[in-house]
Amino acid sequence: MNKSKILLLLVLAAAIGAFYSLDVQQYLTRDFFQPLYSDNPRLTIGIFFLVYVAVTGLSLPGAAILTLIGGAIFGLGTGFLIISFASTIGATLAFLFSRTLLRDWVQKNFSDYMDTINKGVRKDGAFYLATLRLMRSLGSNSPQLAANYSRANLIPRSLLRGSSFPAVPFFVINLVMGLTPIRVWTFYWVSQLGMLPGTVVYVNAGAQLGQVEELSVSGILTPELIGSFVLLALFPWLARSGLELLRRRRIYKPFSKPAHFDNNLTVIGAGAAGLVSSYIAAAVKAKVSLIEKHKMGGDCLNTGCVPSKALLRSAKMAHYMGRAGEFGLENVKADVNFEAVMERVQAVIRKVEPHDSVERYTGLGVDCVTGTARVLSPWEVEVDGQGITSKNLIIASGGRPYVPPLPGLDRVTWYTSDTIWEIREKPGTLLVIGGGPIGCELTQAFTRLGVHVVQVDHGTRLLHREDPDVSEQVQAQFTDDGVDLRLKHEARSFHAEDDRQWLEAGVEGEKVEIEFDAVLFATGRQANTGNMGLETLGLELTERGTLQVNDFMQTRFPNIYACGDVAGPYQFTHVAAHQAWYAAVNALFGRFKKFRVDYSVIPWCTFTDPEVARVGLNETEAQDQGIEYEVTKYGIDDLDRAIADEEARGFVKVLTRPGKDKILGVTIVGYHAGELITEYISAMKHGLGLNKILGTIHIYPTLSESNKYAAGEWKRAHAPQKVLEWVKRYHSWMRH
Length: 736
Hints:
This protein is an alpha/beta fold and 736 residues long. It is built from 28 helices and 24 strands. Helix 2 runs antiparallel to helix 3 and helix 4 (63-109) packs antiparallel against helix 9 (184-194). The longest helix has 47 residues, at 63-109. Belongs to the class-I pyridine nucleotide-disulfide oxidoreductase family. This is Pyridine nucleotide-disulfide oxidoreductase.
């Protein structure tokens, strides 16, 4: 640090020290300034101006008090001019102090973090600063300003007890902006303009209070003072509305808004999210169009949930026949007709199709449009040359499987979870790349249908998002089923020769080759954001490639919403439907009331055998987040119904607050885990603890009793031992 910076730091430290050591705050009252103003108005204005600049420039407490005093002594007009310029000059001084002393050090030591801020400030620094200046007046209600009124000797504290006023801290803005590359002049004039609305409101409040002659309820409740307080209460709403209006004008400026709209809502994509949002719109009698370029129902119906569960069901039947001896059945044999199984999958899809069909949704009042949608503006979509204007848009274009661009891919036979349903001839060896839910479900299904499956994953265990004990259960079953499991294998490239195909993989620094007949990629999914014209609107993407949305499912354009896989963060059908409700309701009725999407209780299930169902935290996540917890575990192998059904395996694991029955998360591994976890989903949603589950009657013998027994395990571990010891003594005494 050079000499000039050291000198400046010493001067600032001395000034701040003097402020506190001399208790300068005791002079920041109306009683101190009022007599001075009566004797010498000009001198008082000068002193007041300098004091205000000093307090603001040094980021000291007292600016709010001085604002009220200025209004009370000088009145609205003069007080506003003095405080507007004094506050801006003081803020600029604080800005310069921060820039001189701290900017170089912060930029050097936090360059990665500051790079993003610097880019934003260089591009839209003035707008961001104006937003911050307005937002400083939008804080939550606080008794702090009430205390300021009393400390300024404007109103007795007794009359303000229980009142609340908006707090107005803004010194942090001055210091933080000094660390950025924004120009000094830009900072000054934006601050001057941005603080004008708040300055007027608060100076007016002080001016009205300064006219109070009798410090009593009757003296205070004058029309002028009531009006001032009403304005004070309305200002946050007015400022927020004004800020939103400015933001809208800024982002919509490049586009021409239609004078009339064809629709209230237009939805792009007829998967789970699109179907639900268009259904809701039609139900409330809005004019809605649903655009789909491929098949109604999206991937869930055609290539995801429905076909995979149909395949798993056939695989389970084949597996049960192989276990017939466990049930006392002899001479049971099943020959798997692979082609017939795959045709059955298609038959199931056809049976479900009417639920999501064009005919059904047309009957509900939805205008179903087939074709490729392209967004032309925030209000217009083009479908194969036909334009549709709409007050609001919902993008529900879903996602697609991600296929890593491995060398040699074009030389081998490969499938994804979207295309595997085309297969009719059973492959000799199916290579599955991926150890997540999709990869595990399809691996087990094809294995049980007689296909030799080699499952490859770069991780140390399957289902890496679940706890290790969950992975152990699934992996043990896969081994029993005959899966050739290759963990810690990093897929590198493919090569083929004649009719033979190989994967080259890396295993702890060594090269391994795996021969196969077909490869199935289950390496995750990516959002469908391309080829729709979204780049014209400049819609932001997250790091995962999904559309950036706020808590109301809005993109940067308030009338454009996104939901489902294209929005994330959870890519489940039930979450897509959940988000769709918020998107549709906010789009249609947001001017009256907007709803924040609720992710507090999100369940999911991997439909392997055993099933893996979860809601809330598991141990791994709790540890990563530093959340304290207790674990209660009940083994389903001890459950009567599970024993009778020859499904005595798995467990229920519940995480709770230490010493409390509040549920943080539940993982169930076992037969019908996806059904069993519903009780815990409801409990978490409605704030019910394990004591409530224990006190609920469960039918005997059912699998759901496992939930009650898990709650019983928790209760046993938290039994009041001292009380029980006295009860034991009581019973002993009663026997004599």
